[in-house]
Design goal:
homodimer, Glutathione S-transferase Yfyf (Class Pi), Chain A, domain 2, 2 domains, 51% helix, globular
Chain lengths: 200, 200
């Protein structure tokens, strides 16, 4: 059975729980509380020297960090991966966008405000995160204005990757009211077969 | 013929020039000077709404932003991509590490110091970038202490992605003297057939 080292509040970890629920893949969960430094212990650094969750471990003991790499591995031959090579590259394009433009701003804002409850402490840094997060949301909304999903007009791991932190962006201080196409897409994702909520 | 929209000083763009040189793929270059806002014009935003280089355009006119997605597309069936599915996921793991932990710290430091020449202006932000950049370099050095390359003991696009900004890290204020395994790996990459330098 697959093992997922994770933190329940993390959208990066939720990506993998959602994909595995929808693909019917059984897995066991091992919780690591990042707010208590549980991913920076010697034991955990022996699993992932980069000290971050999620980490997916195969039944053979192969260790795979990085949420979007693990998403790709789980879904590579499934209905959530387009067959066309250029569309596969577009799935990766949106997943790199997610990790570069979206997650560092929207997930980090949510972590400071919602997980740590320290909005005041991070007030100055939050201003820049909010600006850059809205830039990412504008790019997504413009794309979704004439596409049902991010790649090839069907639900893929690009949608799973971007849904994880977008659907809780308001916990990071981002109002989604100005992004109607994102709102409609969030509803479409939540209607997909096998959908499970984030829990935290 | 493929078209590469790029900025010569950008390591993200160099990744694609290096891969195409080594794969024997012909392409034409269109320079966009990011220091003059040339990727934020209406014309360029029509090509990439995210306003960033590189962008790879196929002979059929298909548009692919994100350096590591374009690397994957160019090399997906080449000798620079492992055949094994788990190793392919590890290639993506290191490429997501590069865009999340490495590039925002090492490339951004280099951009402020070397490209813009504004070390003083960014002094405060540089302190955090230096700390996080060294964390990324430590993870790489520990891995390379007992591996010749990042995945599967042969040169892959994971090496190309990480080489681009690591080999010019000193232009961003990072001394590599404390990372002997990285130094040896940089030499191995530069000895690969078809290697071309970064130019800028």
């Amino acid at each position: 059975m697959l093992t997922l080292y994770e933190f329940s509040s993390s959208g990066n970890c939720y990506k993998l729980r959602l994909a595995m629920a929808q693909l019917g893949i059984a897995f066991r969960r091992i919780e690591k509380d990042i707010t208590r430094g549980e991913t920076r212990t010697a034991d955990f650094l022996a699993i992932n020297p980069n000290g971050r969750i999620p980490v997916l471990v195969t039944p053979e003991g192969q260790v795979l960090p990085e949420s979007n790499a693990a998403l790709w591995y789980l879904a590579r031959e499934s209905q959530f991966m387009p067959k066309d090579a250029f569309q596969q590259a577009q799935v990766l394009q949106w997943m790199f966008f997610e990790q570069y433009n979206h997650e560092p701003n929207i997930a980090t804002s949510r972590y400071w405000i919602h997980v740590l409850g320290e909005r005041e402490k991070y007030a100055e840094a939050l201003a820049e995160k909010q600006q850059k997060g809205h830039e990412a949301l504008r790019v997504m909304d413009a794309h979704l204005a004439d596409h049902d999903f991010f790649v090839g007009e069907s639900y893929s791991i690009a949608d799973i990757a971007l849904y994880a932190y977008t659907h809780v962006a308001e916990q990071g201080g981002f109002s989604l009211k100005a992004y109607p196409a994102i709102g409609n897409w969030l509803n479409r994702v939540a209607e997909q077969p096998g959908y499970v909520p984030m829990e935290a």
